[in-house]
Amino acid sequence: MEEQVHTVKSYDGELGHLTGIIARMGGMAEAQFASSLHALARRDEALAQRVIEGDARIDELDKEVQSFAVRLLALRQPMAVDLRQIVGALNISGEIERVGDYAANLAKRSLVLHHVGVSVPVAGVVRLGDLVRGLLKDVLDAYLEKDVAKALGVWSRDEEVDAMYNGVMQDLITLMTEDSGTITAATHLLFIAKNIERIGDHATNIAEALHYQILGTSPAGSRPKGNTVGGPE
Amino acid sequence: MNSPVTVHLPLGTAKVAARSLSVHYGEKHALQSVDLEIRAGEVTALIGPSGCGKSTFLRCINRMNDMVDGARVSGSLTLDGSDIYDRSLDVVQLRARVGMVFQKPNPFPKSIYDNIAYGPRIHGLARNQDELDEIVMTSLERAGLLAEVKDRLTESGTGLSGGQQQRLCIARAIAVGPEVILMDEPCSALDPIATAKVEELIDDLRDNYTIVIVTHSMQQAARVSQRTAFFHLGKLIEVGDTEQIFTNPQQPLTQGYITGRFG
Lengths: 233, 263
What we know:
Chain A has a single domain, classed as Methane Monooxygenase Hydroxylase, Chain G, domain 1, CATH 1.20.58. Chain A is about 80% helix and about 0% strand. Chain A is built from six helices and no strands. Chain A has helices spanning about 10-40, 45-75, 80-115, 125-145, 150-180, 185-215. By secondary structure, chain A is mostly helical. Chain B is α/β, with parallel strands linked by helices. Chain B has a single domain (about 10-260), classed as P-loop containing nucleotide triphosphate hydrolases (Rossmann fold), CATH 3.40.50. A six-stranded mixed sheet of chain B has the order 6-7-8-3-9-10, sandwiched between helices. A four-stranded antiparallel sheet of chain B has the order 2-1-4-5, with helices on one face. The radius of gyration of chain B is 18 Å and the shape is globular. The interface between A and B is medium-sized, with 19 and 17 residues.
């Protein structure tokens, strides 16, 4: 029935347009996040700069989604699956916009880290980043394919992110304890790790929003949590 | 209010219950074996495309279908457990218990006062003029019309605006002390402001009456009802809490209809 067209055909075009903007936003956020990790791993200042400047485009698309969705709500008074799709677009767009913010912040901190002059090992944080990139890619694919099982997979894998984040944090604390000269650099790196972990949370939020959009219900049970010292959700 | 004893049932129990209810108009099978309970103290919205059977179902509840040539009703339909189609049942009494409001406001060409007093008079609900006045005032008050008409009760009901006429018809239905009020597209001839007033009134009335409303406006059904039943081609397809029907319907046909993807 979802594949069936509306009697008012332009409505289908409008819903498709909304999904299209989200797809573009998602692609940009993925690229921004990947670039920020590259910039960190390779100490690439020019790339970091491009990530910082590129965030404004994601913000613009988010505003476009918000205003287009409000217009659809007013004009079409959507019901059922259409209503859930539009509300889902509003939520998911907001989540992607936050992912973009964290990627830009990561890029900024990678510049600062470079300028601190003290070298700290970034490999653990980059590995954490790669894991979260995988989650973000999967959940955005799930959005485009309307694939609930894939979304649920992301939702339950957030536990791995929390576990790896805790490991990275422990390593950095150990480093700072052993050599107080690393405190400035390690603190920046700690914030970078936290940003990445937050991106993982946003990926799971997208998975939850997608679950509701497709099935009309929230995922059953509470999300497994591996992080015992995490901040607010 | 001076009215017959109203049977107050606990919220949510079945006021009206249909079991395998079928209606034929000649060869046409207009309603096909419908099982549906209308709960007391709630507003139940009946939705569906034209010809789906929703109005036919509504008109069974106060036996309006009796007036249609060739109409045959089978199965069972009860009001507080008693058979609505029992041969010994007085249809006039039934229609006092089950009031009806129509699509087009149809006030009598009489004064505002007499529009309301007509029913109580023929049913002998008032012993004297004071009691009749009391019924008229209370009914107008409950229908949210008293403030607008209290100084012109002797003027003709047909001189009121469309929205006021519809609320006058609701007051007229209330005046005989019904337990159930049936509304067949009560707002389709009204402007948005008058519609809003009637919708607000429906919300106020549900404390005292069980209301069944047929509407083509999905948004209206979503706004005013607690339960929604979706009919298609004479069959009841889905019934559920209104919120669930409009956010997460379980049947593909319901989804198709309320999202405007029909046929």
